Amino acid sequence: MVAAGAALADEVGLAGLTMGLLAERVGVRTPSLYKHVGGQEDLNRRIAVLALGEAADAVGAAVRGYAGRDALAAAARAFRAFVLEHPGRYAATIGVAPSGPDDPLAAAGQRLLDAFTAVLRGYEIEESDVDHALRMLRSLCHGFATLQSANGFQWSADIDESFEWLIAFADRGLRAR
Fold first, then answer.
1. What would the pLDDT profile of 108-158 be if each residue is shown by its tens digit?
2. For the CA atoms of the chain, what is the radius of gyration?
C-alpha cells in the first residue's frame, strides 16, 4: 500500500495524494485502506520512511569506493536524481520529525545522514563542524533538486553545468574549511 501511495505521490504530487485517490488506484474502497494505514498522516509518514531509505540506498551505493570530490559529486548526483525521479515521495520527507529513537523515520534519516557523513570523511572537517557541513550539503542539494523539479530554472544556462558548478563550489568550500 505504501509503495503504491509513494508512486501515486510521485505522479500527482504529495499534496494531491488522497486516501480516495489511492483506493481508486489500487482498486479497493477507501475504508479498506484503513486496514493498512491509519489515515493520510500515517500514509505520508510511511512514504517518508520509504523515501529516506531509498535515498540513503542511492547515495550510499553512489559513494562506495570514492573519496573527496569524487564522493561529493557521486552523492550530490545520486541525491538529485532521486529527488527528480521521486518528487512526491521526497516531499513527504520535508518537515516530518521522528517521534522517538525507535521510530523507523529516525533510522531511515540516520542512514541518509551516514551516507553524506561518509563523504565528509574525505575532507578535513573538524568533528564540531560536521553538523554544519551536513546542513550545507543538504541545503545545496535539496535546494537545487527541488527547484529543478519544480521547473524553477528557466533561464538559458544548462542545468547540468550549473549543478556541476555547485559541486565544484561545495568542494572548494569544504577544502577551505
1. 999 999 999 999 999 999 999 999 999 999 999 999 999 999 999 988 889
2. 18
SS3 63: helix
SS3 content of the chain, % helix, strand, coil (to 5): 75, 0, 25
**CB-CB contact of 122 with 82 (8 Å):** no
Phi, psi for 152 (deg, rounded to 5)? -85, -5
Give the whole-angstrom CA distance, residue 18 versus residue 103: 24
**Cell numbers at 172, concatenated:** 572548494
Give the rounded distance of the alpha carbon of 27 from its chain centre: 29
> What is this structure's pTM?
0.95
Task: Name residue, grid cell 500514509.
Answer: 43
The three-class DSSP label of residue 4 is helix
Taking the C-alpha atoms of residue 4 and residue 96, their distance in angstroms, rounded to an integer, is 20
Closest CA relative to residue 144, chosen from 93, 94, 79, 91 = 79
